[in-house]
Amino acid sequence: MTGNNLAIIILAAGQGTRMKSRLPKVLHPIGGRPLVGHVLTTAARLSAAHVEVVVRHERDQVVAALAESYPDAVFVDQDEVPGTGRAVQVAIDALPAEFDGDVLVLSGDVPLLEVDTLRALIEGHRAAAAAATLLSARLDDPTGYGRVIRDASGTVQRIVEQKDATAEEAAVTEINAGVYVFRAPDLRTQLARVTQDNAQGEMYLTTVIELLRAEEQPVAAEIAADTASTFGINDRIQLAEAGRVLNDRIVRHWQRQGVTVVDPATTWIDDDAVLAADVTLLPNTQILRATTIGAGAVVGPDTTLVGCEVGEDATVRRTDATFAVIGAEATVGPFSFLRPGTVLGAKGKIGAYVETKNAEIGEGSKVPHLSYVGDATIGRGVNLGASTITANYDDVNKHRTVVEDEVHTGSHTTLVAPVRLGAGAKTGAGAVVRKDVPAGALAMSVAPQRNIDGWVENNRAGTGAADAAARARAAE
Questions:
Q1: What confidence tens digit (pLDDT) does each residue in 115-143 have?
Q2: For tag attachment on the chain, is the N or C end more exposed, with fewer CB atoms within 10 Å?
Q3: Residue 327 maps to which CATH number?
């Protein structure tokens, strides 16, 4: 079911007023992709000859968001004539005139459909030699959906939008999922006959079904086995529900692949993430964007990784990391903040309350705690003492710090970039390093210590400290 006999039209022109958002409805994300992105991803797996996306509301924003990720999609503009029928009509007109295969129509706000469902729908359509086949579902509460009206024999007769339905029709629980397969010639013919004579003054695509049945053309319907897959998104409540359904699917997929998810209810994994067997995800963990995690790694609890790469047997706990690379057997956290460009080598360590940015930290090197490492290259076997910082910004430009292999810094060292510490160099506690340090040298910036006897008693008389000092003096 691939190749030149299938075209796919995705409807993404609506405003989505119930979202109450400046962002077009079809661009609201779940699982790391916009709603329409999920539809396009599924469509791509069908290898259709043509994939068209019909746009109108905020069309430039929609096209800009999708064009790079889906280069094979053709964007078609809907004109001022409202309705799904008109949207499909302009898309059909944009197909080659000689195309006479099947047309699969999808909605950009129905993101949970799986490719196997669509393959079955197309195969059933072709096996029945139907002029049109629609996907339906049975819902306990069909409010808001168009109803599928059948005759006494069970044959589909028409689809009625809720606003146009009689009380009897509104009581029907079989709903239209907004997914159709049409024979292209029949679709072209019937769309030309669709009017705007309805409560909304729109060209309904569903009218095509009624027109086909009036000509006794065969119309079939496949009831979806998984009703959740047909969910359409109209408001933020439905968006959250769909996000949860999608995340449950993704979590179960990775559990079947050998990933331990300790608490699926608090674990979120984006659709593009890739996890190896024997990864363990602890509660309250988010694996977002195209994050990859190697075998045996433990991530969490309370961790968010965005577009990161985590090596085998690494440990990342209570950490926020974005576009960072964490090497095999490395440890990160707790309470670490890894900003873009962080690369931590194998068996390295980024410890508690450490922030890194655009920093390469070599194999076996450690930034244990309370430090900031930004715009830096750190060699192998380095140990940065507590509260070491790279002062990378001079109020105009960012500068880079280079720390060569086996350097150890004392606590509270400040490295004022641009500066280089040679291999094996050391710094004293509290050093402020403004000049390059030769290999093997000790850098210190210490003034002689001066003690002023009696200062506390003279300047803080009556305090607990002054009293304690007086007692100590008496004891001496």
A1: 999 999 999 999 999 999 999 999 998 98
A2: C
A3: 2.160.10.10
Domain assignment present for residue 32? The answer is yes
Do 220 and 262 share a domain, yes or no?
no
Cα dihedral value 363, 367, 373, 379, nearest 10: -30
Instruction: Please report how the helices 236-256 and 35-44 are oriented relative to each other, as an axis angle in degrees rounded to 10.
Output: 40
In a domain, 476, yes or no: no
**Do residues 292 and 269 touch, judged by C-beta distance below 8 A?**
no
DSSP state of 29: E
Partners of 181 in the β-ladder: 104, 133
Give the range of the structural domain holding residue 226, as residue numbers without chain letter.
3-230
Q: Do 195 and 262 belong to one domain?
A: no
Contact predicate 338/350, CB 8 Å:
yes
Show which residues are catalytic.
369
Confidence of residue 1 (pLDDT cuts 50, 70, 90): very low
Same structural domain, 101 and 140: yes
**How far apart, in whole angstroms, are the C-alpha atoms of residue 82 and residue 202?**
5
Structurally, how many domains does the chain consist of?
2
- For 44-63, what is each residue's pLDDT tens digit? 999 999 999 999 999 999 99
- Axis-axis angle for helices 59-66, 35-44 (nearest 10): 50
pTM above 0.85, yes or no: yes
Residue 113 burial (CB count, 10 A) = 24
